[in-house]
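stage 2 :: seqdesign
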């Protein structure tokens, strides 16, 4: 649909007018009409070669042609056994190559299911569920945590909405989205806060949006169009095989002609016999075993990679990887697993001769599987036995909107991994609490009496719970956020079992610790809490997030893929192209987690 104005600048009423829609959604007959105009909401694929052409391609490349010709030559030279053998090799090799590529193509088609199957839509004033491929511009859709976004949309309203755009940007951290109109002149399209895109998904919150682009007109569709328009080039192996074939052909024909001249001029052999002798010489030069040897070697490589969940569509791609000198790759989800893991818990402490110090508790385990232990200076530790550490863990878990879903057993008997609904870092905090012995269900089902959601200005999140404090039931505010943002609203600090005033020396010490953690490529989240006065009767940021007690912080990192890091280090070439600070790029080069 052609838009006359920038869609990010419009108010909801202007959006309905621009897209020919209304708050009640499109009428069903209008939706059907638009579907016929704009087409289904699917990614169109460039029409591939017919199956018969793909089959014939394995019998008509230059090496195969040389073998066909060699077989004919063998028959003419009165060597039918050799001719049959050469042709049999060619047929078996071509059929085997086609089978490998056909099987890979079928597997690829099974993976191309990125868009959701159904969406919640407002049609004729009623909420209904329709196939995602039937969405059209002007449809009003509803989104909630965990939903895949089926089309490019402009938000109409939202509630603490955060979207994971890693399929478009490569960054796993969810971004905040809101419905307010913005100018967006200096921003890239994926940075505009009121736009959401097909192929991404809702990490947290909920919202209502209006569709403005579907199918190939979406951002995702334009990317697909670019990739499909790329011209397929010969692989290094195919180029080498062509060169070898040309060289062998020239040598074979050259030597054959030389012997033909010798046979006719010097030895005086009759023409027919000389020609047959020459054909035999030419056929003898043909390396009929080369093609199946190469094919089988590549097939073995393909099978080995398949066992490691790598899908090879063409056999020649295996050799192409071996010829690669430089690989440009994204960090998130490629060098790293797109899974956050809490590595340590830090709490303020004092030691003899050190009035400003801390305790660092290491946490084992990686990913979202809630299995791990706590240790201090190498000695095992029960985190719940240390009140200060326990309070940090509980605060981080209570200030949380993520959900952990346990593995499921599929129909074929295989088990899925742990799944996350929400922010990866918040999910890691739930895992931390479960490692400490807290039941996941209790944490996820615990209801707060008030919540101040995280926003990019405050960089803090607060929840208020009813809690037993010194034998009485009190309202306790739990706060998490960035180190500086938490310290700004704290007046006290918990050191061991005591709460003392937070002075500038403690602030300087904590910030210095934070800088050290940042240089390790880790994300730091601070925790604070406060028992609310009984006379407090409103839950505003200014009244809740004040006079807090600083408890400590956690350090979390994105687990790298060991196999990928070993691959690059084994090659001895590490060229880093990163949109990160220098120290994070260097950590990646060394193979450290980031």
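stage 2 :: out
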């Amino acid at each position: 649909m052609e838009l006359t104005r920038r869609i990010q600048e419009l108010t909801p009423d202007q959006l309905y007018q621009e897209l020919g829609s209304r708050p009640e959604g499109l009428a069903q007959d209008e939706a059907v009409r638009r579907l016929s105009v704009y087409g289904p909401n699917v990614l169109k694929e460039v029409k591939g070669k017919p199956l018969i052409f793909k089959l014939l391609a394995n019998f008509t490349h230059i090496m195969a042609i040389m073998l066909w010709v060699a077989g004919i030559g063998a028959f003419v030279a009165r060597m039918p056994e050799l001719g049959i053998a050469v042709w049999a090799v060619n047929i078996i090799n071509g059929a085997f190559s086609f089978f490998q590529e056909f099987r890979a193509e079928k597997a690829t088609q099974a993976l191309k299911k990125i868009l959701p199957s159904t969406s919640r839509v407002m049609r004729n004033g009623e909420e209904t569920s329709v196939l995602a491929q039937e969405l059209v511009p002007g449809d009003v859709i509803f989104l909630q945590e965990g939903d895949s976004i089926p089309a490019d949309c402009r938000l109409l309203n939202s509630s603490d909405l955060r979207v994971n755009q890693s399929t478009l940007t490569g960054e796993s951290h969810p971004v905040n989205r809101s419905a307010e109109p913005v100018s967006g002149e200096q921003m890239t399209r994926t940075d505009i806060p009121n736009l959401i895109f097909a192929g991404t998904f809702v990490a947290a919150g909920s919202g209502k949006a209006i569709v403005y682009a579907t199918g190939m007109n979406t951002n995702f569709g334009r990317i697909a169009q670019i990739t499909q328009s790329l011209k397929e080039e010969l692989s290094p192996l195919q180029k080498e095989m062509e060169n070898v074939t040309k060289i062998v052909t020239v040598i074979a024909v050259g030597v054959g002609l030389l012997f033909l001249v010798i046979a006719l001029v010097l030895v005086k052999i009759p023409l027919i016999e000389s020609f047959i002798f020459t054909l035999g010489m030419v056929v003898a030069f043909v390396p009929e075993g080369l093609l199946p040897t190469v094919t089988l070697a590549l097939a073995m490589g393909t099978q080995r990679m398949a066992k490691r969940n790598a899908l090879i569509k063409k056999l020649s791609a295996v050799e192409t990887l071996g010829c690669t000198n430089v690989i440009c790759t994204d960090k998130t989800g490629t060098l790293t697993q797109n899974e956050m893991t809490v590595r340590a818990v830090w709490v303020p402490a004092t030691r003899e001769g050190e009035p400003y110090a801390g305790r660092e508790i290491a946490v084992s385990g990686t990913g979202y599987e809630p299995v791990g232990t706590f240790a201090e200076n190498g000695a095992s530790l029960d985190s719940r036995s240390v009140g200060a550490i326990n309070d940090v863990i509980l605060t981080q878990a209570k200030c949380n909107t993520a959900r952990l879903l346990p593995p499921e057993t599929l129909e074929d008997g295989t088990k899925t991994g742990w799944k996350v609904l929400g922010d990866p870092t918040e999910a890691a905090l739930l895992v931390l609490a479960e490692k400490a012995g807290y039941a996941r269900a209790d944490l996820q089902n615990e209801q707060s009496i008030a919540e101040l959601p995280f926003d990019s200005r405050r960089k803090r999140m607060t929840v208020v719970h009813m809690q037993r404090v010194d034998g009485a039931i009190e309202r306790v505010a739990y706060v998490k956020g960035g180190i500086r943002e938490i310290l700004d609203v704290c007046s006290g600090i918990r050191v061991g079992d005591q709460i003392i005033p937070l002075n500038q020396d403690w602030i300087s010490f904590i910030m210095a610790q934070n800088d050290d953690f940042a240089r390790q490529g880790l994300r730091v989240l601070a925790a604070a809490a406060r028992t609310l006065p009984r006379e407090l009767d409103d839950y505003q940021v200014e009244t809740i997030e004040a006079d807090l007690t600083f408890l400590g912080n956690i350090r979390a990192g994105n687990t790298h893929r060991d196999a990928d890091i070993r691959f690059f280090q084994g090659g001895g070439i590490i060229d880093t192209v990163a949109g990160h600070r220098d120290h994070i790029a260097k950590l990646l080069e060394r193979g450290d987690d980031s």
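stage 3 :: structure notes
- The mean pLDDT is 82.
- The chain has 20 helices and 20 strands.
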